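Chapter summary example.
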Amino acid sequence: MTERKRIGLREVRALLPGETVYDSAVPGFGARRQKGAVNYVLRYRTASNRQRWHTIGRHGAPWTPDTARDEARRLLGMVATGADPAAAKREAREAVTMAALCDQYWEDVTSGRLLTRTGRAKKASTLESDKGRIERHIKPLLGRIAVAAVTRQDAESFMHAVAEGKSSARARTGKTRGLSNVRGGRGAATRTMGLLGAILTYAMDRGLRADNPVHRVRKFAENKRERRLSNNEYAALGRALQQAHSISIWPPAVNAILFLALTGWRSGEALALRFDQVDQATRTAILGDTKTGRSVRPLSRATCELLCNQARDATGKLVFPPTRGEGIMAGFRSIWNRIIRLGGLPADVTPHVLRHSFASLAADIGYSEPTIAALMGHKGHSITSRYVHSADVVLLAAADAVAERTAQLMGCAVQGVAAGLPQAAG
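The structure predicted for these 426 residues follows.
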């Protein structure tokens, strides 16, 4: 029969390798030396009469004979109510972590098995942003937590940590000499919380948890950009484009900026535009894969002439090709920044500002929201919109009017805009 004695420091120090001593005061509580270290253990039987071994912890702070004995008493109390501490510990150890969940989510979303609310796979640009938020914010701050253990407090603390820059870092992007400076901030926190909510909804769909704690967190208000160009800024942009042509900045990039000003398109849509998507006879562009799906866009006469005058590169596919290669123009943003500096424009003038300015000009002229939405490619909600293949005369007239007003503000003759070479107003 195994000798039982009240375990104290003397008994712990006297243990030889492989020896176990059991406590006389708490049934099943013992100390065992293995590989030089002493662990406090608890042996008990479950409600189904199965014997279990549970390791309380290694001798040393915080575990002493007295604190380990108190913990053994607490665990035995749980066993008396039907709990199984050893099984619970094993389940926690084997539980899916947030890092593993993110990896599963990423595999499904990139393979196209996970669709958005509109029934489409996420676009490559969205996936690139999501990947950055997962690797630079979610995994570093939440990766080790079990999916089932994430609470509303965890989600709220995560949001504030991102907002306060606690996940800020400099990281390589994978591109040659590519370096990303992750700063965090409230905007990054709000957008990352949206992705975290989607990942935890994915966890619910797979039975890994019953609720989504992100839904109960009050997020920072998004500062939606309402920035539009003033008349003076339009004129400055026109002068900058004229100067850019004169100093031989890559012409397709300069003309792409002019195209954005005339159409209000998203920059990604313009840079991906192919000649085979443009029908000059009907003055229509049909885009099959935009942020809102298939989109039919009316083109002003000035825009069509700009496209006609745009020289084709060796591949003859992209309207605004890169300096080399066949992909989308990777250096557009740096060229944009250079032209903004040429015009003396503020740093907050982004390509998206041109889109908002186009919509604002259309509203100034008096066009309705549905007309402006159709000009800019917002999602159409009618059944017949799926089958439209060309723009109607009303939309073409609206496109002409907004493009003409844009040209006036930029100090360009419409013919000068059409040729892709802004001319100073006489």
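To summarize the output: The longest helix spans residues 186-205.
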